[in-house]
Each structure stands twice: as structure tokens, then as C-alpha cells.
Amino acid sequence: MLYYIDPGTGSMLFSVVIGIAATAYFSVRALFLKLKVVFSSKEARKTKNLSRVPFIIYCEGRQYYNEFSEVVAEFERRGLPLVYYTGTEEDPVLKQPWSHVKAEYIGAGNKAYAKLNFLKADVVMMTTPALEVYQLKRSPDAKKYVHILHAPSDATGYRLFGLDFFDAVLLTGDYQKKDIRYLEKKRALPAKDLVTVGCTYLDVLEKKRKGVDIGPHSFTVLVSPSWGASALLSRYGAKLLDPLMESGFDVIVRPHPQSSIVERPMLEKLQKRYEGRKNIRWDFESDNSVALATTDIMISDFSGIIFDYTFLYDKPVLYVSQDFDKRPYDAGDVEDEMWQFDALRRFGIELKEQDFPRIGAILRGASDSVELREARHQAKAEAWMYQGQAAKRVVDYLVTLKARMQEER
User: Fold this and answer.
1) Same domain, yes or no, for 75 and 209?
2) Between helices 200-211 and 390-408, what is the axis angle to 10°?
3) What's the pLDDT band for 22 if we cut at 50, 70, 90?
4) Average pLDDT over residues 354-360
5) Do 49 and 181 have their domain in common?
6) Which residues, including other chains, have CB under 8 Å from residue 12's CB and lie 6 or more apart?
7) Segments forming the whole domain that contains residue 154
């Protein structure tokens, strides 16, 4: 006997099967990683003997130092005990003579997760997303996990489920609340604390900006993309850089830090292609302040550095047209357009692929109109609130959260 399954039912059954298979795969993978961390790491066993601490900050890498530097200094200034774990031996926090801050390098990868997955703390704060999604797990002895956004762009720009399992998210602007609340309802998640504190690293960079002496320089273009298949260098590469080289302008190419990790062959191929060209410089420094200060216009895609450039230096931006695939990101589960793309259309100048051959003329004629400047200022007001106050507001919230936890005991 033959049975007919209509297309809608068939599609639903297919989705169910795929969902079960994906769940099984990631469950087994997560169990394997957990067992690997627990049984193979001496650090995990050491951590079990630690006493509980009130506050822990985890800094994943050197590139996030500016996110935490003033927050750590605020803890010290108030005389509050803080444990600061870092994933890089080059972290400047390690070199400071603190009285109330204990800073420790804990390594990277599984070595770091071995310690982080067995923390004993009241409050843990980090920029690292995907808690409970991959290797990074909630410690049974850590009470509250706080995520602090490290860009004034959409909170849904993380890979799927990036913020789902945090207890609180610290925002740079009020506009970021809407999409997080939408995802909480859609995914039946408990409501998080959503607190707008401003942008800690922009506050730091604003101080640095005032101290950078750029001196005389020729007209310089900054190429600063995001990373991944949809990003500028991966998608276009030499198609854009070749005519840019021929324009005669000085060019600084500043790849995203993640590109150096996961897209190294692509970067090495491009670097080799332009060996010997005097008008191009590759910038891999963790501090972007010099690159931002010494350039006159930016070409980017959907990278958050656009907002650093726009908000700090008030300079024009060209953005490459793109078909951004939202599906791997939390934004894929939100119907509305991402704020950053709407804002970019308002203050940026779109650069299409067919425009690449005449990029020199476009750069020469790029106008910084009154309308573009006003749109930049409006976006800045929306996305970077409480300018200069972020570190104080972060510590205020963390102290309040701990006090609230004590009252609830």
C-alpha cells in the first residue's frame, strides 16, 4: 500500500529529523568536550579548591583590554575585591601594582575553559558570547553571568544563541534591548537584566584620540572589514584591492583579528600579491587608534569598526554592498532589519562591485555632506549613550546585582 505525504508535512518531518540529528550531534560533542576538560586538566582540579570570590572578569584576549581597563581601575579605586582572568600574557592589567585586583593569566582554549567552567564566584562578567553553547559552560558554583557588549552595534550580531544563557547583558545603547527581548519571548527564555551603561572601550579610545599626534600625511584610505564568507576581503579580495592600489592613494589594510586565526591562507595570499607596493601597509596591531587617526576615509562591510571610526573621528565611510546572510546569527531569528545596516545607509556611502574599477574617482569625489554628518551624529547618540561614564555605570550595576543577590538569600 502506498501512502501519500503532502509537501508541507514532508517538509515538517524533514525538519524534525534534521533537528534531532543536530541536537544529538551537539549533545555528544558537548559531553566529549566536558569530559576532556574535567579528566585531562590539572587546572580543573586546582580550581575545585578555590574559595568563592565576589567578582570575576574574564578577558578573552588582548583585543578586549580596552573593554575592561577602566572597569578594573574603577574596582581598584573603590577598594572592591576583583579577580581578573586573562587569556593573554601581554595583558597590561597583569603588570599593574594592584591592591584590590588579583590578575592572572589562565591560558587559552581548553586550558582556559578548564578554569572558567569551575569558577566559584557571585558575579562573572565577560565579552565572550555563547555561554553554554560550546566549550564555555556555566560553573555550578558561579551565581550570575553578565555579558558586556564590545561594540555599539546590534546585540544580535553574535552567532546563534550567543546571549541566551546569560543573566544580564550590559548595553551600549537602549536600542539594543528590543531585539534581545524579542528573542527571549520567541525562545521562551527568562528575562535578563538589560542595563544600558555606554561603551567602555569607546570611552578609552576617546581619551587616546585626543593624545594621538597624526602629523602631516597624504590622503590615506583605511580598508577594515569584518571576517567570514560574507566579509569584504573574503568575498572580493583582489577585485577591490587591485584598483585601489592603482588609484595611487596610500592604503592601510586592517583585517579583523579573527581573520588572522581562521582565514590566514587568504590573508597570506593577498599580502604576497602586493609585496613591494609602497602605497599599502598591513596593520595587525591590537590597538586600532593609530590606524583610525591617520586615515581620511574608510572602506568596510558590516564590521563594528565602522562605528569606532564614525563616532570617534567623524569621518566618511564607504561600505561595500553585500548580501549578508543572517542565518548563522541571532539576527536570523529577528524579522526586523539590523539597526547597524539601517544606520549605515543613513550615514555611509554605498560602494557596489561594479564601482570597483573607478574606486579612485569615487574616493576623490566622496563628499562629506551636512546630511551625512548629521546622520553620523544621530547614530552616535543612539548607540553610544552615557559617553565617558561607562566604567562607573558597569561597576555600579555589578555592585547592585551582588547586593540584590544577598537580599534574595
Assistant:
1) no
2) 160
3) very low
4) 94
5) yes
6) none
7) 40-199+387-408
